[in-house]
Design brief:
It is an enzyme of class 4 (lyase). Keywords: Fatty acid metabolism, Lipid metabolism, Lyase. By secondary structure, this protein is α/β, with parallel strands linked by helices. It contains 12 helices and 10 strands. A 6-stranded mixed β-sheet has the order 1-2-3-5-7-10, with helices on both faces. It is globular and about 60 Å long. Bound molecules: hexanoyl-coenzyme A.
Length: 257
């Protein structure tokens, strides 16, 4: 494989990216970050891929940015390299991305899960932003995305105390969309990603873009954006096929056109 710190596997129309630095609990060092972004860009550009699944190991989705690699860096260095700016490329992927999280999702690991479109969590998952205990703050969007996901009270609590949330609290708070038994996590997440990948890809991209727009604009502008994109779905063959299939009481055969 072209990668050392991740595994990239194509399962039908689903691209599965597995973080694979088990000895460091999948801590995000610069190589792993480069490889994850490269793999997602490769899958996003591949018309044979309709959804991406990002996962880690049973013990850890990822225990954060690599503290040992960051420790000696100066302000001038992190500023000059614009440390963590590469994640902007991950968030501009248009293909839906599902995170399957078991074990620790801490710091940059929690942030990486939140960079995905939604999170399916094993009952063993633990989420936290412990950066403050290291004398830093979240740097891959945690202070912003966690606040949008769970609201100010819990986001402040997590970012100021560094405590972790178990999976039940995370689901109640809206951070994860579903909880599944740890042993079933990968199968369930793959089923969900496959369901998405069987939809029309351009329409799935439009749905993702519309939901994401809600975080960037006012309600009135967002509703207008949605309506325009909704209208444009009628320009696709897949809208004709999807509605014809319903009327004819059969399954649709989308052609991604
Ligand atoms: C580098 C890490 C690491 C990390 C774990 N390891 N997390 N290495 N960076 N973030 C390494 C350990 O050093 C150890 O290596 C091995 O993984 C196993 O970890 P243990 O600590 O022995 O395991 P355990 O006792 O089970 O504890 C698990 C843990 C703990 C609770 C997850 O590892 C932990 O607290 N990790 C750090 C979590 C954290 O603070 N994350 C936020 C990082 S800052 P050796 O070689 O010693 O066996 C961050 C900032 C993002 O993400 C942006 C702002 C800067």
């Amino acid at each position: 494989s072209e990668f050392d710190t991740i595994l990239l596997d194509r399962r039908g129309r689903v691209g599965v990216v597995t973080l694979n630095r088990p000895k460091a609990l999948n801590a995000l060092d610069s190589q792993l970050m480069r490889e994850v972004v490269a793999a997602v860009e490769e899958l996003d550009a591949d018309p044979g891929i309709g959804a991406i699944l990002l996962t880690g190991s049973d013990r850890a989705f990822a225990a954060g940015a690599d503290i040992k690699e960051m420790q000696p860096k100066t302000f001038a260095e992190v500023h000059a390299e614009d440390l963590f700016s590469q994640w902007d490329r991950f968030s501009s992927a248009r293909t839906p991305i599902v995170a399957a999280v078991a074990g620790y999702a801490l710091g940059g690991g929690c942030e990486l899960a939140m960079l995905c479109d939604f999170i399916i969590a094993a009952d063993t998952a633990k989420f936290g932003q412990p950066e403050i205990t290291l004398g830093v703050i979240p740097g891959i969007g945690g202070s912003q995305r966690l606040t949008r996901a769970v609201g100010k009270a819990k986001a402040m609590d997590m970012c100021l105390t560094g405590r972790t949330m178990d999976v039940n609290e995370a689901e109640r708070a809206g951070l994860v969309s579903r909880i599944v038994p740890a042993a079933a996590l990968l199968d369930e997440a793959l089923k969900v990603a496959t369901t998405i990948a069987e939809m029309s890809l351009p329409i799935a991209m439009m749905a993702k873009e519309a939901v994401n727009r809600s975080f960037e604009t006012t309600l009135a502008e967002g509703v207008k954006f949605e309506r325009r994109v909704f209208h444009s779905t009628f320009a696709t063959a897949d809208q004709k096929e999807g509605m014809a299939a319903f009327v004819e009481k059969r399954s649709p055969h989308f052609t991604n056109s």
